[in-house]
Fold Vanillate O-demethylase ferredoxin subunit.
Amino acid sequence: MIKVRVASRAQAAEGIVRLDLVCAESRDLPPFDAGAHIDLFLGNGLTRQYSLCNDPADRSHYRIAVLREPTSRGGSTYVHEALTDGATLDISLPRNLFALDETADGHLLFAGGVGVTPILAMARRLHALGRPFLFHYCARDRSRAAFLDELAAAPFADAVRLSFDAEPETRLDLDIALADPAPGRRLYVCGPGGFMSHVVDGALARDWAADQIRKEHFAAAPGPEGENRPFELVIASTGQVVPVAADQSAAQALEAAGVFVPVSCEQGVCGTCLTRVTDGQPDHRDAFQTDEERAANNQFTPCCSRARTSRLVLDL
């Protein structure tokens, strides 16, 4: 872990706070690649992941932007209320599950709302490399779009396309944006689930190949309502049977039974709790694994996923 201090805090947009974090020991922070995120270990016992949006070449600070979620489970509320100027906290080393293919022939970047954070770092990196790209930034209205002044002043401002629901004349036209699915191009998208599905489904319908598309979720899609059934987990090394009630997660049941599984995001996004399954069929509800990994049915995320069979045997 790294001890950091909030060196600067500002309102980036309606409901979005921007934090610049510096090393508490006045050293450069570890390097990171565009698309990377860090874990914030918050004082209320929660761990949350936030993407880095500053220039990867600048190691003097890490910049994050956090939307205050109306249904916050404590993470964004803590950031907005407790992480004031001068506050200190622990963070993880940067990790990258949304890596930029710097060798591609061209890049299309799509950001929805606060999903601009990793996409902004990608734009900075691509500009530094002299690689061609277009950056589509979509939001409900201008008041909810972070970093507009920064984007207007950026050296790549002519590559930025702004789209707002409140301004019909600016709305994103996928027929135009996705008109060239050449195999050497790559598409990156981050933002709310509905926005991401709109872009990804639109790309696939316009002959973009799945392996050309990269995406990063903030949270897994909610599971089917009223369909949570109890099931059992079996610990392969000991034979211990851990019952999972319909109203609790597998991770909660394991913790209550004294079985340690590392958990971070609790939303099926980060992959920290990914656990090997040796028997049984998981009910995958995460946004971390690929379709191929889910089809293999040999691992699951106990923070949000469940079981289709009455038992799952875990390689623990």
Observations:
- The chain has three domains: 2-91, 106-216, 231-314.
- The longest strand covers residues 2-13.
